Amino acid sequence: MTVWDELVGQEPVVQTLQRAVADSASMTHAWLFTGPPGSGRSNAALSFAAALQCEQGGCGQCHSCTTARAGSHPDITVIRTDGLSIGTDVAREYVRKSALRPALGRRQVLVVEDADRLTDQAANALLKAVEEPSPYTVWMLCAPAAEDVIVTIRSRCRPVLLRTPSAAAIAGLLIERDGVEPELATAMAAASQGHIGRARGLARDPDARERRARILALPTTLRSLGDCLGAAQSIHDEANARAAVTADAADERELADLRQSWGVEERGRRPAGYAGALSSLEKDQKRRRTRLSRDAIDGVLLDLLSFCRDVAVAQQAPGTPLVNADVADAVADAARLWTTESTIRRIDAIVEARESLSANAAPLLVLERMMMGFLDR
Q1: What's the CA angle centered on 180, arms 49 and 178, to 5 degrees?
Q2: Are residues 40 and 172 in the same domain?
């Protein structure tokens, strides 16, 4: 299995990257990978990075390929954030690293997974390194769209546009690589709406499928203001709980590492500077928790949006394939009970909620307002 095999439905992209690996004339020092969520931007960049280190162009079996896949290759650095943004200090740290010669591999590769989260100051700090890198350095930036990266950086990168993989391609991957039952793989591939990671999570996690089923049952159960407020609170609480599962363990580990690095014991005198380091860590941890919670809420909104889309399809274009074919009966019930106008109103309420969350509005208030938009009036 080569490093390219997981890039489902991205044959033109694979050909472009393979050509760059094989032919130095097709290679450049900075790349910008864009595409919709779940299309595999980061996977494409990491596969490309592994292939650049591999003597055989990405065989998937050699030491370079296996360490790259495991995230332990010394000359492949992945820059990601658990918070809402990537700040200047982080950018400058990796700019310094980009100037170093490779330790073992043929190139020093830096992959910025969330380039759209770079602050303007961080992007400007990165600009010089992207504009004039060392001859051994390759920058790979990933973002949903080119417009999400400041023009001075994106104009210096070669664009690579990924497309949304088909449900059939994702189902095939789940069946062949993960051993998922074909019927389940087909249903979850459709439900994922082209998001490979989400399809895999749904196919392999019964709890995730049960959670999705509860979400898709919500729209037809809202009868009163009390129902709306209760549903909003439930979504908000569950998102916070899911965020806590990841964040609590990471917080504890990071605090232990910080104490060890400063030589701090449970009781005793704190060294000068420790309080500032602890405060900075706590702020980063709070940002991560906020992002994890909001990402969980956004996943709920996307599920609701797909359900309403199916209802609109059932009302206006019967026979068109449904995203949520496994709950076709619920979709048919909603299509019968709702008017076309009320379906569109519900879709608008979800879109407005996503925009409000992006603008940093209070999540619970956003959810309550959205749910009230689901009531028939």
Answers
A1: 25
A2: no
Same domain, 33 and 108: yes
Please give the model's pTM, rounded to 2 decimal places. Answer: 0.78
* pLDDT tens string 132-157: 888 889 999 999 999 999 999 999 99
Residue 127, domain CATH: 3.40.50.300
132 and 27 co-located in one domain: yes
Structural domain count of the chain: 3
87/187 same-domain check? no
HEC profile for the chain? Answer: CCCCCCCCCCHHHHHHHHHHHHCHHHCCCEEEEECCCCCCHHHHHHHHHHHHHCCCCCCCCCHHHHHHHHCCCCCEEEECCCCCCECHHHHHHHHHHHCCCCCCCCCEEEEECCHHHECHHHHHHHHHHHHCCCCCEEEEEEECCHHHCCHHHHCCCEEEECCCCCHHHHHHHHHHHHCCCHHHHHHHHHHCCCCHHHHHHHHHCHHHHHHHHHHHHCCCCCCCHHHHHHHHHHHHHHHHHHHHHHHHHHHHHHHHHHHHHHCCCCCCCCCCCHHHHHHHHHHHHHHHHHHHHHHHHHHHHHHHHHHHHHHHHHHHCCCCCCCCHHHHHHHHHHHHHCCHHHHHHHHHHHHHHHHHHHCCCCHHHHHHHHHHCCCCC
Query: Burial, 281: exposed, middle or buried (Cβ in 10 Å; 0-12, 13-18, 19+)?
Result: middle
Residues 322 and 352 in one domain: yes
**Residue 178 belongs to domain spanning:** 167-204
Q: Is 374 exposed, middle or buried (0-12, 13-18, 19+ CB in 10 A)?
A: buried
The answer on 315 and 182 residing in a single domain is no
Token reading at 82: 């658990």
Spans of the chain, pLDDT less than 70: 83, 266-268, 377
The position carrying tokens 């906020």 is 290
**Strand 30-34 to strand 76-79: parallel, antiparallel, or no bridges (unpaired)?**
unpaired
